[in-house]
Amino acid sequence: MDALNGSLPKRSQEAETTILLLEDDPVDRLAIQRRVEKESLPWTLRCAGTVADGIRCAGEGGLDLAILDHRLPDGTAFDILGHLGETPYVFITGGRETAVAVRAMKGGASDFLLKDDERRYLELLPTVVRSALDLCRLRREARRHQEELELRVEERTREARDAERRLRALASRQVALGEEERRSFAREIHDELGQLLTGLRMDLAVLRSEVVERDRQTAARVAECLGTIDQSIDLVRGLSSRLHPPILDILGLGPALEWLVDDSRGRSPARLNLDMAEIGPGLAKPHALSLYRIAQEALSNALRHSKARNVEVTLHQEGAEYVL
């Protein structure tokens, strides 16, 4: 058996743990090897006596644990830590090097052993190794659980975002359908009811011209009916425009808000003011419609419930956003 770079063979089918033993003292190294043989520990040791040999052994991979003596001919055990990857390690230091042990533990060591002249520390070595392996296993399981949790959180977050996106799409679809119904209803009121009233007005106007000379009382009654029809026509036009203002589709948000404020002035004693900057051409129609409906609802609430004497509507652009 090569005392420096050799490996103890596995003693049974139970040998599952591969350990890097970085120890430059041949007596201590041999004592550890004999402890493994004496207790039939299921360990396979890769022995190294220098930092360079330890780095080479670590580079071969497949390590479950590293037992590192602090002082070595070409450096210290701290020089190999960057080559161990996630392999757990145990530090072995001199009895008076407690500061080294503290530094090792702060740096991530699973445990440490302090050497003594009688080598009683070897009695603790199996327990320390088992504890280090158990700790490593627990850390791996905790990391695995953490990764699984993060994946589940990410999945739930993605599902929530998808659900929010679907809800937004559904809401947009509902708004679009509602606006289409408003537009259709407004057109129907304007075209059909407006035409009926206009036709009726024309008939009454003809009737008035025919009876004005023969029966002035009847002509006066007809004139009153014409006035009522004119009011009805204005009402139909107003209802149609409030349901869906055609000016919004034709001229855009700015003129539509101007019409809204002017129309509200005629139905409220409050003093209304519109302060609006120029609307850029990049405002999409759905956004313009949303802003118009917000202004319409807010203005209606203000005039109905606030008892305000002054109401101001402002609209300006901040970068790519509009503030109403």
Molecular structure report:
59% of the residues lie in helices and 15% in strands. It has helices spanning 26-38, 51-59, 98-107, 121-211, 216-243, 246-251, 253-265, 285-305; strands spanning 17-22, 43-48, 65-69, 71-72, 75-76, 89-93, 111-114, 271-276, 310-318, 321-323. It has 3 domains: 17-119, Response regulator (Rossmann fold); 151-243; 245-324, Histidine kinase-like ATPase, C-terminal domain (Heat Shock Protein 90, 2-Layer Sandwich), CATH 3.30.565. Strand 4 and strand 5 form a beta hairpin. With 324 residues, the chain is α/β, with parallel strands linked by helices. Helix 4 packs antiparallel against helix 5. It has a 5-stranded parallel beta sheet with strand order 2-1-3-6-7, sandwiched between helices. A 3-stranded mixed beta sheet has the order 8-9-10, covered by helices on one side. A two-stranded antiparallel sheet has the order 4-5.
Q: What is the gist of this entry?
A:
This protein is α/β, with parallel strands linked by helices and 324 residues long. The protein contains 8 helices and 10 strands. The strands form 3 sheets. It has a 5-stranded parallel sheet with strand order 2-1-3-6-7, with helices on both faces. It has a 3-stranded mixed sheet with strand order 8-9-10, covered by helices on one side. The chain has a two-stranded antiparallel sheet with strand order 4-5.
